[in-house]
Amino acid sequence: MNSSSNRASTWTIIQLMNTSTRGMGRGAVDRMDGWYQSTYLTTSPDNTMIGASNTPTQQDSFSMRDIPSYNEIMLQHRETRIPLWKKNVMQEDVSDAVNGVLEALVSLQELKILAQDYEWDDMQSILRGPVLTWKLQESCSILQQARGFLSIDARQEIGFDWGSCAWRKCGAQADAQESLAELYNAIGLFEPFECLFTIDIVERSLRDILAVIPPDYKPSEEVIVQRTGEYVPYEPRNNPSDGGNNEMIWII
């Protein structure tokens, strides 16, 4: 009796371990060879979805395969981002990083136009593109590490990556990243004016970064305006004469 109980207990522990650690060692190869779909999307051998009618479609399953696993994200963090924080920054790196911030500002102007026309798909493409994701992140990280070119006050204004602030003060970089993530997650839920409000937070953050860059390492103000346009602060529609139909901003 005791032997049977011990075996049952051991088997229960093994099952628990398998369940609790399932997928933790998986990566890109597993996402593409069918393991991901079979494990999490419960497909039958002929690749048709089974279950209730509200189960994700086959098309959805393939798009979900494109989402990196936690292991892949942390591998990229260890191999790419951490070494970047320790990089010996040169003047050419600073100039390239400033150009990366300017490119991001240009993309924001495109987002403003698309938001007013309800072009959610095109907005998602820009938000997921390299200019507003890894290129912006890399540019801001380089500027934050440019000790030989930027003062400590300037580097504190830029701040650390949104996911790496910890106990340190988060600056303009984190504000921009958080707002971009919020906008991406709320595409299709936000009204155009809500999108414009969120985009304005990103734009102000990036322009704050440019403001602390010494003139020697960035284009003239005229050139910046030519590339990114003049900054026009977002103004909510809250005119008291509109009969109380004030604009409401919901931040999720």
Keywords:
mainly alpha; 0% strand; 252 residues; disordered C terminus; single chain
Average pLDDT level:
78
Largest sheet: none
The multimeric state of the shown protein is: single chain
| Classification by helices and strands | mainly alpha
Radius of gyration: 24 Å
- Give the overall shape, derived from the CA principal axes: globular
- How much helical structure, as a percent, in the residues? 55-70%
Q: How big a fraction of the residues is strand?
A: under 5%
Number of strands: 0
Number of helices: 12
User: Uncertain runs with pLDDT below 50, 5 residues or more?
Assistant: 41-62, 247-252
Termini separation comes to 56 Å
Helix-strand string: HHHHHHHHHHHH
Structure report:
The chain has helices at residues 2-21, 28-32, 35-40, 58-65, 70-85, 91-116, 120-128, 134-144, 152-158, 172-185, 192-211, 221-228. Helix 6 runs antiparallel to helix 11 (192-211), helix 7 (120-128) runs antiparallel to helix 10 (172-185) and helix 10 runs antiparallel to helix 11 (192-211). The protein is mainly alpha-helical and 252 residues long. The model is unreliable at 41-62 and 247-252 (pLDDT under 50). It is globular and about 80 Å long.
